[in-house]
Amino acid sequence: MLNYTLKRLLALIPVLAVVSVVIFALIHLTPGNPARAILGPEASAADVEALSERLGLNRPVALQYLEWLGRAVTGNFGDSLFLRKSVTQAVADNAVPTAQLAIAALVVAVAIAVPLGTLAARWRGSPLDALAMGVSLVGMAVPSFVLGLILILVLAVGLRVLPVAGYESVFDDPVRGLRYLLLPAISLGAVLAAFLLRTTRAAVLDVLASDYIQAARSRGVTESRLLFRHTLRNAGLPIVTAVGLTFGALITGAVVTETIFNIPGIGSLLVNAIKRRDYPVLQGVVMFATLAYLVVNLAVDLVYGLVDPRIRLSGNG
Amino acid sequence: MGESASGRGWRTRILTNRSVLAGGTLLLLVVVLAFALPPMFHADPFAVDPAHRLAKPGPGHLLGTDTFGRDLLARVAAGAKSSLIVGGAVAGLSGLLGTVIGLLASAFTVMDHVLMRVCDGLMAIPALLLAVALAAALGPSVPNLIAALTVVATPSVARLVRSRALAVTSETFVEASRAQGAGTWHVTVKHVLPNVLSVLAVQVTFIFADAIITEAALSFLGAGVPTPQPSWGNILYDGKGVILQAPMMTIAASAALVVTVLALNLLGDGLRDLVDPRATRSGRQPGMLTRLVGTRRGDVVLQGGPA
């Protein structure tokens, strides 16, 4: 297991190297002088020069990269150009609402997808299956921010049952916090559910078709026991993997969904960074989201290896 | 490939596939909305009518007007044009680039290591964030948007083409060709490429759909199609501010977006059925798992919509 863990960690190094180059390069993709782009056409030459100096833009690019990397490794992505705080601080300040939304959405997604996907597979070809597949097909065509807008229209404006938008930490005021969280979590969770539903159904069908299930069935194991004891356990791994892979979409989905519901999270930080060309914040947000995604998938891989010895023992595990 | 390769057989199979038919028909409707209707009715998405701001749907403006009094139907139709152009360009360019990279990687071991590590790195960054960051850095314009989305989509194509190409290269007929003295170039162009095209077509269809969703999200966030040029994302953003007074803006743009993406997804699923009938026979819902495994990350999942 130690071997497998080390291998997994080593495999991350080239990935992180490429990621760091891409994220560092962002500021240099701007046509012309980035400092000029940040300050706008009105700024004086002296101001532009001062900012170039502050951002280190006057030095050779390779040197800039190494310096940036050296600081980034210690978690230092420089200071925001507008917020009067470090990028790391800004991301940390805004991370809680986003994390709350992401976790709530994941709970919604799993709560919908796993039972429904399992039932759809169990009664394959039934009207229930057709309905589940139809809903998931449409669901995959609806981006979460669009679903969010539609839910606002129907539930908050039309029926007036929930607040249209806003935020309250669930830790400060659980009831109000959850009321605010409900619509965004459903918007994001339902869309993820559409994807997870199909994965769950496919995974359960795969297991149901396997020899050991046939054998168990022929021994007279009841269908419900077969489904819950034998099938779901084995279908669990692909489902967990799919959850891990959806994590990237979960983060970015949370970022966009937030902006619909005026939640002060990473999304609003990002939107403001785009508007003001606050490159350090832009870089920091992308970097932290990527790290979160990689860590979650590493964790999924490790759990996978822990549960299934075939994976950690195989050569390319 | 296989016994059903005769042209007639293929045509019948395509025309009798329900997913392909439904998706194709819907897509055709969107194309008509985008390219045929506006010139026919002289619809101008920029014409401002200050006296009729946020007008309700009616005879003069079928879907009503937006915050500036611009005709909403004309804006949604022009948005369809933006989406189809951006989506189509991204699908085409990433298909082309991804194929070249994938074939190079499959043919030359040294390049394989370098190219695939770069792809891994690009795929580790959540797709939408990479697109936002690239588009924001390059500056708001449609060509920059296309460039940003192409960078995001290409690695998944390259990976797919590479794995497919490696599978084809180990087939007996390629070995036979090699034994007769065929070189890498001949094998790649004459044998590998034709056998990669079918899966490529499926993947490119899904990328088309992804790109439309991502474009809408980017425009919504302010890093996409620059205003006043209409795009569904822009209309949704403007509509959000007046969701109480003019819900039609949100409804019309959402419906257009969902129908288009649904059409492309149906088309992709149907094509996948045709290309790989085993996928359905083994009980797998076509598309999803293969897309999951084929690209190993979020953009498949983004396909799931949470943009």
- Fraction of residues in H or I helices of chain B: over 70%
Mean pLDDT of chain B: 82
What is the N-to-C order of secondary-structure elements of chain A (H for helix, E for strand)? HHHHHHHHHHHHH
CATH superfamily of chain B: MetI-like
**Pairing-aware structural class of the strands and helices of chain B?**
mainly alpha
Give the end-to-end Cα distance of chain B, rounded to a whole number of Å.
Answer: 37 Å
Q: Care to count the β-strands of chain A?
A: 0
Question: TL;DR?
Answer:
The complex is a heterodimer of chains A (317) and B (307). Chain A has 317 residues and is mostly helical. Chain A contains 13 helices and no strands.
Task: Provide a descriptive summary of the structure in words.
The complex is a heterodimer of chains A (317) and B (307). Chain A is mainly alpha-helical. Helix content of chain A is 78%, strand content 0%. Chain A contains 13 helices and no strands. With 307 residues, chain B is an all-alpha fold. Chain B has one domain: MetI-like (MetI-like fold). Chain B has 13 helices and no strands. Chain B has helices at 7-16, 18-40, 72-107, 109-124, 127-138, 142-169, 172-179, 184-221, 232-241, 247-275, 278-281, 288-295, 298-303. The longest helix of chain B is centred in the middle third of the chain and has 38 residues, at 184-221. Chain B is elongated and about 75 Å long. The two termini of chain B are 37 Å apart. The relative contact order of chain B is 0.14. The model of chain B is unreliable at 1-6 and 280-307 (pLDDT under 50).
